[in-house]
Sequence to fold (327 residues):
Amino acid sequence: MNCEHCRQLISVAVDQELTEGERGSLDEHLAQCSECAQYAEQIRELERLTAEWEASVMPFDVEQAVLSRARAKPHGWLPRLWSGSYRIPRPVAWAAAVLLLVLTVDAVRGPSIPEQTGPVNSGPALIRPAVQKIVLTESDVVSTYTTQAVSKDL
Amino acid sequence: MTPARKTDSHSFTQLFHLHKNHTYDFVLKMLGDKDAAADVVQDVFVKLHEHMDRNLPIEDTKFWLFIVARNLCLNYLRRHRKQQPLDSVIDSLEHSYNAVDSRLSALRQAVGRLDSPYKEGLILKVYQGFTYAEIAEILGTTVPAVRAILFKARNQLRDELNRTQAKGDSYEL
Fold:
């Protein structure tokens, strides 16, 4: 065992968490190394000093402040939300924010008009005739061409 | 790993009276300032009250309180470290304890100067009597890491006290 390992074990020994094997090797090293034995004595002295720092008791005014703050907390999520003590979970808050943004953008842009790009093969029967009206058939083209040719000749 | 613990079924007031002193002692030793400790400890117990109010499960109240207290202390220290120079922290530490014993005064100052994981580990072990496995659970680390933390904490404390002694103060280790 080297001195560094020995000093780590001294700290563990002070905390009474040494295993039996570790205890044996530590004692063996301490018997041979005066520097580590001196270090062990310093750590034991440090431990005696730290033990003198007594525990503090919660002052009465702090105790009363805690109890009155806890009692003042409104019950139920809605009153707590109103009072600001209830936090909405972050994913829910984000989802609500995104939804609000989408609805706002949608409201600003106004109602959207669907664009028709190709022939209508499906859809409600009431819409179909109106759309079909603007689709030119071959006969329409021929008749238009004929009309233009006739007017040119005239 | 600690064995599974029984769920507490006490009321908030019972739990508060059961845990108020060791929670307060931990927070005061961590922050070294009575006013700050009073604020943080209030937040800890208000969180407990909210948690119980929402019927959320707490496996072991003492562990839960120490984890919450530790996080709130770290948040407080993080927020105030930039604003408050260390010397003023030490002054408030002395004011909080009305120190008369120079050795204890030196110790408190040295603990106040310890880096965060070392201070937490030392307080949880020496003053709260937790085992290495329990400290590992509270700090969210492993038992070998806790061993290393306490070894380094004691070394840092010893060096700090020896420096204080070298400056001519009456303390000697």
